[in-house]
Amino acid sequence: MYLGLDIGRQYVKLVATEKTKDGFKVLDAGSRLVPEPNMAFDPEKIDKAHWVMAVKELFRQQGINPKKVKGLVTGISGSSASIKQITTMEMPSDELESAMTFEARKHIPMDGTDAVIDYQILGSNQREVDKIDVGLVACTKGVLTSHMDLVKECGLKPGVVDVNPIAMSNAFSFIKTMPDDGLVVMLDIGAVSSSLVVYGKGQQFFTRDLPIGGHHFVKELSDKKEIGYIAAQIYSIKMVYQQQSVTPAQTQQKLLESPREPFMIIL
Q1: Are 80 and 54 in contact (CB under 8 A)?
Q2: pLDDT, tens digit (0-9, with 9 covering 90-100), for 164-185
Q3: In whole angstroms, what is the distance from residue 101 CA to residue 138 CA?
Q4: Which residues are CB-neighbours of 251 under 8 A, at least 6 positions away?
């Protein structure tokens, strides 16, 4: 069994799959609140202990044994990493790695630990001769170590560690054919921040982390309607599902029945 685990500020979510001759089949999907149910969400009070408890409870809720997980995929938020498309001169691989490490230090908030980078040559630049486009992803060793320690405390063996905007882009490319013209714009609204991704064939890849999320919308709704945080949260969720004409149970069933079918809903 292969597992995708998203450890968010307010929810932890998982998708369990197995490999088939045609690709992968979704076995299960679920989510669980990180804070205690019926308590107002306060991002400043969420720490590692809350995440560990939530992940373990989610596994129990879904009836999944962590020891049966063959491969684990987790992600680092866009605010903790830097994602850039760099245009540079063609050069030997060892020189390119040094150049990308130097470039990464310009864009990530250093915490006293070394930069951890990964990059991929995207191809020749369409505008400048003898130059190439390189996709660069970087974070600090401190950020990566902290993430992997959290995964281990949840009773899991760290596997692939992705960066959330890249994972979202790859997922979209897997289920949809990229248009020849124009751009694809994706917005992932999290609890306290959101990720914006804009890209297209032959176009510059752009992503930005926005310091606003569902928590801010709920707080605003609570203030405007003069109701409690929990009541505002329930109200906002009901409004979304009414507009989509679908229930939470139907959302999960749709995912399980049609893993390749694009199906998006705002939560």
Answers
A1: no
A2: 999 999 888 888 888 888 899 9
A3: 8
A4: 263, 265
Q: How confident is the model at residue 242 (pLDDT cuts 50, 70, 90)?
A: confident
pLDDT band at residue 203 using 50, 70 and 90 as cut-offs: confident
CA distance 163 to 197: 12
Q: Is the dihedral of CA 138, 139, 145, 149 positive or negative?
A: negative
Distance CA 50, CA 53 (A): 5
Helix axes 48-62, 141-153, angle to 10 degrees: 50
Q: Quote the tokens at residue 13.
A: 């979510």
Q: Please give the backbone phi and psi of residue 41, each rounded to the nearest 5 degrees, phi first.
A: -75, 125
What the chain holds in terms of domains, given with CATH numbers, is 79-141 (3.30.1490.300)
Checking DSSP bridges between strand 71-76 and strand 206-210, what pairing results, if any? unpaired
User: What residues contact residue 230 under an 8 Å CB cut-off, 6+ apart?
Assistant: 38, 39, 40
